[in-house]
Amino acid sequence: MNLKDVLDMGDYGAYVWSCYGLTLAMLVLNVWLAKRSLAEQVLHARRRQQMNSEQS
Amino acid sequence: MRPWLFWPAVILMIVAAVGGLVLAPEDYQQKDAFRIIYVHVPSASLSLMVYTVMAVAAGVGVIWRIKLAHAVAAACAPIGAWFTVATLVTGSIYGKPMWGTWWEWDPRLTSELILLFLYLGYMALRASFDDTQRADRASAILAIVGVVNVPIVKYSVVWWNSLHQGPSISKLAAPSIEGSMLWPLLVMMLAFMLYFGAVLCDRLRAEILRRERNASWLNGDLMKV
């Protein structure tokens, strides 16, 4: 199987590669969203702790 | 991200993708289009598995009043919803060359769409409460009631005359798929499970921090990004 065959996928290339591309995009997006949500909560928690320590 | 879950998942995904795209022989009927199963089937399995984890966690949270179980359920929902979206999108792209249509109101497709609505409904219901405890209880009921849809999705192709093809690997008899085509699928499913674990850890930490942001026990480990 040469590179052209792999890319063409017997004329199903557009269907096969778009599925792999979209799935990869979903996997990357999920990681990014989880990281962003964690970073947001860490920031909130740090701020809150700082405020609490300043008050006490 | 837990590196001991995330990196093995990435490596196994690459191995399975090479196995599925290059090493596996083409299917005698579906030709090379069958290679879509290596992303479609793991996404679909995870969409059901994550929902089951979510419903069990919600059930544990309701019965034994464990806050952490509710946090697990809440952390599962967005991940499961994305797996369901991936299943529907890749399934639609798979359907066009195989069935001649992007969408059909078929039992398997419709029940998978309902699964997406259950995830979205669960998240919307949680978001509609300011009080976390009330959000936990109300959303848990929805998650538990909705779990009835999981076997419907799974067995829809057996119970009804579905356009969707029948099960290939989860049969009591021998799998109706050849070994050289089967191993990349199993490796990809394992990779997706590890990936789910890795993303769940981050989502769960975020959820715990959101709930306990005033707690005095929050320490350095939880606060690391």
Structural topology:
The complex is a heterodimer of chains A (56) and B (225).
Chain A: H1 3-8, H2 13-55
Chain B: H1 3-23, H2 37-64, H3 67-99, H4 107-127, H5 132-146, H6 149-159, H7 179-211, H8 220-223
Helix pairs in contact in B: 1-7, 2-3, 2-5, 2-7, 3-4, 3-5, 3-7, 4-5, 4-6
Describe this structure in words.
The complex is a heterodimer of chains A (56) and B (225). Chain A has 56 residues and is mainly α. Chain A has 2 helices and no strands. Helices cover 88% and strands 0% of the residues of chain A. The model of chain A has no long low-confidence stretch (mean pLDDT 91). Chain A has one domain (3-55). Chain B has 225 residues and is mainly alpha-helical. Chain B has a single domain, classed as Four Helix Bundle (Hemerythrin (Met), subunit A) (Up-down Bundle), CATH 1.20.120. Helix content of chain B is 74%, strand content 0%. Chain B contains 8 helices and no strands. Chain B has helices at 3-23, 37-64, 67-99, 107-127, 132-146, 149-159, 179-211, 220-223. In chain B, α1 packs antiparallel against α7. Chain B is globular, with a radius of gyration of 19 Å. Chains A and B meet through α2 of A and α1, α2, α3 and α7 of B.
Q: How big a fraction of the residues of chain A is strand?
A: under 5%
The main β sheet of chain A shows up as: none
Q: List low-confidence stretches of chain B.
A: none
Strand content of chain B: under 5%
How many discrete domains of chain B? Answer: 1
Assembly status: heterodimer
Mean of pLDDT of chain A: 91
Q: What is the strand tally of chain B?
A: 0
User: What's the order of the H and E elements of chain A?
Assistant: HH
Q: What's the number of helices of chain A?
A: 2
List keywords for this structure.
heterodimer, A: 56 residues, mainly alpha, 88% helix, rod-shaped, B: 225 residues, Four Helix Bundle (Hemerythrin (Met), subunit A), 8 helices, 0% strand
